Amino acid sequence: MSIARSVLALSCVTLLAASTVAEDWPGFRGSSGGRSDDKNLPVERSKENLLWKIKLPGAGTSSPITTGDKIILTCNAGYGTAITRGMSGKGGGGKGGFGKDPGDQTKLELLVVCLDRKNGEVLWKKEVKPKLPETPFTGMMREHSYASSTAVTDGKNVYVFFGKTGVFAFDLDGEQLWQADVGTGKHFWGSASSPVLYKDLVIVNASIESKSLVALDKKTGKEVWRQKGLGTSWASPVVVETKRGQHEVVINVPGKIAAYDPATGKELWTCQGVVAERGGGFGAYTASTPVAQGGVVYAIGGGGPTPSAALAIKAGGSGDVTKTHVVWKAKAGACNCSPVLVGDYLCWVDGSMTCLNIADGTSAHKVRLYDGRNEYVSAVLAGDKIYALTRGDGMFVVSTDKFEKLGHFDFADDNSIFNASPAISDGRMYLRSNQYLYCIGKK
Predict the structure, then answer these.
(1) In CATH terms, is domain 3-441 a member of 3.40.50.11290?
(2) Radius of gyration of the chain (CA)
(3) pLDDT tens for each residue of 137-176
(4) Could you give the CA distance from residue 141 to residue 415 in angstroms, rounded to a whole number?
(5) Distance CA 53, CA 69 (A)
(6) Which residues contact 97 (CB under 8 A, 6 or more apart)?
(7) Is residue 375 within 8 Å of residue 336, measured between CB atoms?
(8) What is the pairing mode between strands 167-171 and 157-161?
């Protein structure tokens, strides 16, 4: 299957309103699991293709989204903003950022920021009052921020998630429409899952806040359903279309992949992550978000003491489908980043670019790009190129025919960490570090 045909045949992982145009990047990993048909993005950074760069009003690791002429992202300011590269490695913190006093938590500000796509000008900025106390800015919290969840838009309004502070809806002029609580819990690693839209619902993985998957009416914020007992997961839910044209909300949770009816929250099926002799499941740490195509769900997980694994599962099952719907399983994976489908391959970047054949899970390509692992950023596909942004080693560009390195973007002048996945829209790519937002494209 060619890359062009693969992109045209995508089964959307996020259902969005018809008012959202195809060129928008309306949520975490866009509307097609990190894929775009843009073919003319540059492969090296230069003065000509860096169209603009702006200093953001706060820190954050949420990804930018686009709708029409607007870019929307979230930030935190006033407390816990010192996330820079330092002694712990190119992608870590060390004395460059971790040794700094995070400040007074009572001064924490949560921000929703809207910028002009043409030049990065701030069109509006809204502050959300946090519910304190929040997780202290220590340990793993210093690896990301209090603004880690990517917003989602239906082209009319935007929906943001700030963990225990709640879910918020704004119109595209910045007026707050509603606020909803989904739980009061917190974790020493913070909160990170991004919301997804299904028809008139905003669906949120609130496992950190209440061990629940929660659906809210996107017009009012009223809770429509709640599925309890998720366990602890930082993965974002995705909406998958089965071969019969039905829809399921699929999420990676401790020990299994689970699917729910997006209209009611009823559990439809579960699948164990790894074969029993290797420990079962993906372990207690689950952060990678699945992707889907042609009625098949692809998921990766593992890392640390948990064996790495990848799975392909046919959607549309019922009950425990571990023995009936698994297409293949493989001993390869990563714990934080999410995969992207590239033609006939499932790929991800975690120091190396790993590609498995989607037909049977066998290894197809493995290319070492840099000396690192535990990557937070998820690679994206643009036309016939894979763009792999890293936490501290710049962005690598790889071809999709021979999987050879084509170029590299260096961000040595930015000492902060890149944790957010890129957004691609209308021939431009938007990259967010902990300090800056970059717009890259051809003039």
Answers:
(1) no
(2) 20
(3) 988 888 889 999 999 999 999 999 999 999 999 999 999 9
(4) 18
(5) 17
(6) 82, 83, 84, 85, 86, 142, 416, 417
(7) yes
(8) antiparallel
